[in-house]
Specification:
Helices cover about 50% and strands about 15% of the residues. By secondary structure, it is α+β, with helices and mostly antiparallel strands. Strand 1 and strand 2 form a beta hairpin. It has two domains: about 130 residues, Tetratricopeptide repeat domain (Serine Threonine Protein Phosphatase 5, Tetratricopeptide repeat, Alpha Horseshoe), CATH 1.25.40; about 150 residues, Phosphatidylinositol 3-kinase Catalytic Subunit, Chain A, domain 1 (Ubiquitin-like (UB roll), Roll), CATH 3.10.20.90. Helix 3 packs antiparallel against helix 4, helix 5 packs parallel to helix 7 and helix 6 runs antiparallel to helix 7. This is Cns1/TTC4 wheel domain-containing protein.
């Protein structure tokens, strides 16, 4: 170690631009790190600033700092700083339930901004355990529950808040939205229940011969994919085995959907030994066969067909080779008792969009 007339000394590195940026005396607001403990100068100042203050006072200061950051124009930095301040306030473990409830509730608001809805609900719950009268915590829990699709839970939170502030417009508007969502969900559940019942009836009505044929080919019947009630009233088709046939085959009722035009056709009986092009040629033999095809694009040999089927609880589509018999293309699938085919003009923009939407290759 070098030495001079004043004694031994070490050779320090000269000041760099980063040294200036990281020193509290020269630091710009945008250079303040989200976690000040990463900067020894800032951490030292923080400890000096709060060394002799009671935990409750420190927690309150962190709450106020967090509020200041949260009120700023939202940026990644201001949001992170707000999150850090509320968390630091909770780390004080001040024992003031009302204050800690506010800190949890405010951190829930930050999570909402970050779209971390699960964390928002969790913090709101902690806030309410400490202070059940925290209306903002109820409101934030309700909003986060709504985004998570937990509509009934959201209604419980907002109703609890309205019992404390009955005339609050913001709470009332949120409750109205949640009620509308719940009504739609209830209707969807009821429709699904009816569809399950209808699928069960279809299976029971199919008869032993049909059930054996389906089981042999690994085909199962799922919920109806299309409402064919109006066709059934007109004596619509049923899934039945072919009569007086030496081959084991089925006759299917089918719906043909033309997504591009919002149109559809119902075919009561389709022999699965046939190719779809046979049916399409009968329906679209030449240009201008149907009124809704103003451009004359729908001609049987220009068309593509996609079968809609069930995969677990989601409907999927697969392309069908219209030149080949349908029967082997159904094997191993879960389909509705009335087959649904989406018909599009081959290589058209509408088909391209359909393929992209359904993630087909």
């Amino acid at each position: 170690m070098p030495e001079d007339e004043f004694g031994e000394y070490s050779v320090l590195q000269p000041w760099t631009l980063n040294d200036f940026r990281e020193h509290p005396l020269f630091m710009k607001p945008e250079d303040v790190p989200a976690d000040i403990s990463l900067n020894p100068h800032l951490e030292g100042l923080r400890q000096l600033l709060y060394a002799d203050e009671p935990p409750a006072d420190m927690a309150e200061k962190f709450r106020q700092m967090g509020n200041d950051y949260f009120r700023e124009t939202p940026t990644d930095l201001s949001t992170q700083n707000a999150l850090l301040c509320y968390t630091r306030g909770l780390e004080m473990e001040c024992g003031d339930k009302a204050l800690e409830s506010q800190l949890y509730s405010n951190r829930s608001a930050v999570s909402l901004r970050l779209k971390e809805y699960g964390k928002a609900v969790d913090d709101a719950r902690f806030a309410l355990k400490l202070d059940p009268s925290n209306v903002k915590a109820h409101f934030r829990a309700a909003r986060a529950s709504k985004e998570l699709g937990l509509t009934a839970q959201g209604l419980k939170f907002v109703d609890a808040a309205l019992r404390q502030q009955p005339g609050d417009k913001q709470l009332g508007d949120l409750r109205k939205t949640l009620q509308q969502m719940l009504k739609k969900e209830d209707a969807a559940r009821e429709a699904a229940r009816r569809a399950d019942e209808e699928a069960s009836r279809d299976w029971a009505a199919a008869g032993e011969t049909v059930r054996k044929l389906l089981a042999k080919r690994g085909i199962t019947l799922g919920k109806p994919l299309y409402d064919v009630a109006m066709y059934a009233q007109q004596g619509g088709g049923k899934l039945v085995p072919l009569q007086s046939s030496e081959e084991e085959a089925l006759q299917w009722p089918c719906v043909f959907v033309y997504d591009e035009h919002g149109q559809s056709d119902f075919v009561a009986v389709f022999d699965e030994r046939c190719a779809l092009e046979d049916q399409l040629e009968e329906m679209f033999p030449a240009v201008g066969t149907v009124d809704w095809d103003q451009e004359g694009k729908y001609v049987w040999d220009r068309l593509s067909a996609y079968l809609e089927y069930w995969e677990q609880k989601e409907s999927r589509v697969k392309r069908v080779d219209i030149t080949e018999a349908l029967a082997p293309q159904l094997e191993g699938l879960r389909v509705s008792a009335c087959l649904v085919f989406h018909i599009l003009v081959r290589d058209s923009p509408a088909e391209g969009s359909f393929v992209n939407v359904h993630h087909l290759k």
